[in-house]
Amino acid sequence: MSIIFHITRSQQWEEAKQVQSYRGDTLDTEGFIHCSTLPQVLKSANKFFVGQTGLLLLWIDSDKVQAELKYELAAGEKYPHIYGPLNVDAVLKVVEFEPGADGKFELPEELKNVV
Known about the structure:
The chain has 3 helices and 8 strands; from the N terminus they run E-H-E-H-E-H-E-E-E-E-E. The protein has helices spanning about 10-20, 25-30, 40-50, and strands at about 5-10, 20, 35, 55-60, 70-75, 75-85, 85, 90-95.
């Protein structure tokens, strides 16, 4: 089993649970859902989500993802991208992901010893 992570807004995740499928903002605009490995989570969060609140970090079992999953080069690193909707049963855990007072993110305690 390989674990990948995706940052999303709480409201989007609640809507996804209703229909058992998560689409993500970039699926329609870029053709895939951005994900990260654990070492890439903070880099992505602090580049694209600084100061944003109401976020969740989805902990995804890549073996359970039904859509096509590709590791593709972006910014000199291979990032996981999901081509198609994410089936919610591939999500093992959902963790609140809020920035600190300075607007920057740190790993939630329950993820500091993962992987």
